[in-house]
Specification:
The structure is a homodimer of 457-residue chains. By secondary structure, the first copy, chain A, is of the alpha+beta class. Chain A folds into two domains: 17-45 and 102-356, BirA Bifunctional Protein, domain 2; 366-456, 3-Layer(aba) Sandwich (Rossmann fold), CATH 3.40.50.800. Helices cover 42% and strands 18% of the residues of chain A. Chain A contains 18 helices and 16 strands. Chain A has helices at residues 17-36, 50-53, 58-63, 80-84, 88-95, 105-114, 159-174, 187-196, 203-210, 213-227, 232-242, 248-258, 263-279, 346-355, 376-391, 405-414, 425-430, 448-456; strands spanning 40-41, 47-49, 67-68, 98-100, 123-132, 144-153, 180-186, 287-291, 305-311, 320-325, 339-344, 369-373, 396-398, 419-423, 433-437, 443-446. The first copy, chain A, has an eight-stranded mixed beta sheet. A five-stranded mixed beta sheet of chain A has the order 13-12-14-15-16, with helices on both faces. A three-stranded antiparallel beta sheet of chain A has the order 2-4-3. The radius of gyration of chain A is 29 Å and the shape is globular. At the A-B interface, helix 1, strand 1, strand 2, strand 3 and helix 5 of A face helix 1, strand 1, strand 2, strand 3 and helix 5 of B.
């Protein structure tokens, strides 16, 4: 057999025990906060019918969906003409009926419509599962990655938006972040800005341009707006809005005045004010909440609030985002059900916590104590103690007898096991076992009972 | 847009919040036991290179592997002749490079070989991830299902086998099962039985026949053995072994005597005796351990111990199984690394716990209290209390104002929320809120502080 070292498909990853412990810390923390706010977990199948997914992510997205080949003699049902012409695009539908989940939102919408008679609305669900995209792999971009979403469907209340701010604040604070900003905007304000300069149709052009303020500065944005057909007069009217300064309250006051001619713009102001009002009762732990009217992510999608979260401690793209989208389930024929949701970027959060050294030792702790012995007599002596340790809920291992002590110590060190218990013939005779603290190197002779008491403490 | 109700691919499932809570209870319990015994979690990608998987599961298995269509213009690289001949089998390799994980063992072997220089052996890993098989769906058989495996690689010690018995015992006891049997056998004993009748080559025929003892009885087994070419003299020598009775110790004594002419058979006896000896220090909690020499599952695969677990409380196939397989990683060019492992059948365990009504209320508890109010003033009054509840780690929700009280009560009932707090104008004036126990219907008037104290307790 060839001994070529095996590998994983490009853009996919193995997760080692150390990586899994850290990932579990992130996911468990976020899930516990979701639950505290009344969100409930669901899971959907990795494969969806291809027809469920196509047409939901735009033409570019459709190309990035991984299709699963039909089982058995898939060519028997294939279209002959497409085969002869080698037309991959058109052939796909006749040899593939299923595809891998591309995000969690479309499967959630499908779930809601399919199970609408079993669901109590408002339905607050969270979902933490992998998704797959045939993107070109690059640093920080994978073909398989976990999404971590919470969405509520069937409630127009802006209390939901306020709670999303609290969920971000609480989860990221619990993860150890100390300085991060939750940016909030509202699509209706962007619509209002376009409306007051009579460019309602150009809202995409407008937002694409002002979204770049951070990167290209005011002059760059103005140039881009001129290129996209806005007049100098338009720009003069928009400029104060783009350059909005001050507290969130001051910004809202300026917006109310700039948007007084736009009903939708004023509705956007009202919605933001309401979210801020809900939040006044409950001070945020560590987050800064910032109204940022240049925030336009996923504009084609969101119809109300828009969220984005950034850490201020390291250079990193957004670590979370979301918003409200009316008519979540319309794509599956159930009209008029509004949804709002947020997502945590687990891979980026992982990198941030790693860089800031924020993973707590307790979160990544594995086996607490390794019993080291030398022969079968030692094993027999060790086994009742091993059982007592485990009965006291201590993760414990006995290294099988026969290996040299150095090898057993290396095992403890490599697995970062903080304590070892040595059982040699002296120890068995005296009943005093050697407990070694692997970090300090300190050793002491104790009875099994004393070791147990010490490790439980 | 068509309003055909969307669905999932056949053989796949959505999991509702109630189902997820129960599944999490099962997986969390098993994982906590794995960890206590020093097993560490890894994850591998859902997609493996097709070449990693093919040839590992036999011809039938290969057909059941879900292949992923190459992205982009996949036909441009397709073999023309196979296309023209519509030869699905041969075309597959030229339009598909990746496939979905079929089990957790082959990806684990691949992982060990790929990461051998980072791994400390013995490597004790567990893995809980979905696998996919293009089987014909039927009751209890799905095309996507979770496997839940623990394996140790790089240790020949029979202590590992003993610990697997303990892990089954502890995990299934924790899940609430009261009466279950862990069957154990050893491939070397089966080899020994074949050897003593000079039918070493017919071990498969032998074991396939005696494996059916439960179903077809002794006469059936004898008939099948005769059909498979065994002589009456062979059968006379095997019969005492098949009909082995008594305690495990008595069975082993009989086997030792029957297999005295077979070195491999005696080795099998020694291995079983050693496992029993390890276990004598640590009484099993609820499991019965039974030496069953008719147990032959996965015979082509296992080389030492063989395990199978059955509940005695309801009629159900095996809820777990495993064994030792020498040369786990040989398929990827790393020879001589022995492995042993066990698996829990999560879907069957789910059905057993459901039938026996063993899911504890605490495991499936979601939101603990719903605050019900009637208008914006009520919301404003409720929000600080809501925050205090959550700060005390109580899952709490506020139903957005505006809905009728009946609707809010229905929401609490449907979500099985055990408590509601009612805030109307009387309550706001007096500061005494109504706390309702949704199960008993009992109501009392309490201050916010008293409610908090009561719900924390």
């Amino acid at each position: 057999m060839a001994s070529v070292k095996p590998s994983v498909p490009k853009g996919t990853r193995d997760f080692s025990p150390a990586e899994m412990a850290k990932r579990n810390f992130i996911f468990d923390t976020i899930k516990s906060v979701f639950r505290k706010y009344g969100y409930q977990q669901i899971e959907t199948p990795s494969m969806e019918n291809l027809s469920t997914l196509t047409g939901k992510y735009g033409d570019e997205g459709d190309k990035l969906i991984f299709k699963v080949l039909n089982s058995g003699d898939f060519l028997s049902k294939a279209n002959d003409q497409y085969l002869t012409e080698k037309n991959s695009n058109l052939l796909t539908a006749s040899i593939s009926e299923k595809a891998l989940r591309y995000d969690l939102t479309v499967p959630f919408a499908r779930y809601v419509v399919q199970h609408q008679n079993e669901i109590t609305f408002p339905f607050k669900r969270f979902q933490v599962q992998p998704v797959w995209r045939a993107d070109r792999p690059q640093r920080g971009r994978y073909r398989e990655f976990y999404q971590c979403d919470a969405d509520v469907v069937g409630s127009t209340s802006l209390l939901n938006e306020a709670e999303f701010v609290q969920i971000y604040d609480e989860a990221l604070s619990k993860l150890g972040l100390k300085d991060f900003t939750i940016k909030i905007n509202n699509r209706k304000i962007l619509s209002g800005v376009a409306e007051v300069i009579d460019k309602g149709d150009s809202i995409i052009d407008l937002t694409v341009a002002i979204d770049k303020l951070d990167k290209i500065g005011l002059d760059g944005v103005i140039k881009e707006l001129l290129d996209r057909g806005f007049t100098q007069a338009d720009i003069d009217r928009i400029k104060p809005v783009i350059l909005l300064q001050g507290t969130n309250g001051e910004k809202l006051a300026s917006l109310r005045s700039a948007l007084q001619a736009s009903t939708v713009g004023l509705q956007g102001c009202y919605e933001l004010e309401t979210v801020f009002r809900y939040l006044q009762y409950t001070p945020l732990k560590r987050a800064t909440l910032e109204l940022d009217i240049t925030l336009a992510r996923g504009l084609n999608y969101y119809t109300g609030a828009i969220f984005e979260v950034k850490t201020n401690e390291v250079a990193m793209g957004s670590i979370g985002g979301g918003g409200r989208y009316d008519d979540l389930t319309g794509m599956f024929g159930l009209k008029g059900l509004t949804g709002a949701g947020i997502s945590f970027g687990a891979d980026r959060i992982y990198d941030v916590l790693e860089e800031l050294n924020l993973f707590p030792a307790s979160a990544v702790a594995g086996t607490k104590v390794l019993i080291i012995c030398f022969d079968e007599a030692g094993e027999a002596y060790a086994l009742p103690l091993l059982q007592k340790l485990r009965n006291s809920n201590i993760s414990a291992e006995l290294y099988p007898a026969g290996a040299k002590i150095k090898k057993q110590m290396d095992y403890a060190n490599n697995k970062q096991i903080p304590f070892t218990i040595l059982i040699g013939s002296d120890e068995m005779q005296s009943g005093l076992l050697t407990l070694k603290n692997m970090e300090s190197g300190e050793q002491e002779k104790l009875t099994g009972e004393d070791i147990l008491a010490k490790l439980i403490a």
